[in-house]
Amino acid sequence: MNVSYRTNFILRMGIPLYLFISYFFIAHSKLTLIIAILATIQLITFGLDIHKKGNWNKINLQHDQRTRENALFAGNLIYWFTILVLLMGTLLIQNSMVSVTYPKLIGYIILISLLLKWLIRDYLNNKVESED
User: Fold this and answer.
1) Does residue 51 surpass a pLDDT of 60?
2) Core-most of 19, 100, 113, 116, by most CB within 10 Å?
3) CA 111, 114, 120, 122 torsion: positive or negative?
């Protein structure tokens, strides 16, 4: 979405909030807490970058040709990563090598995949900005 940086920041605040709520009231899983902390750190660095550049009220143009290609590349990479990890996790669960249930495995993989996709996409987009 091409929204202001402030709106984008507010929307991104929902992910760490959901993860902390999930940790304290639902799952009590250490992995959820670690992912929530990493998402919070990523949100803080995003906010500091916006503040440093003074872009709070400016429109965040996210959908030019390069950013779409970077998002597509990150999505394809994470798609194959997700399939591979789900396959390995299923094999480990069936052989009783891991004591995780299938819904937890799927939930963790979705959260990790989203975070990795955003990290790869942001890294590639920042790399493009630094080359300009």
Assistant:
1) yes
2) 19
3) negative
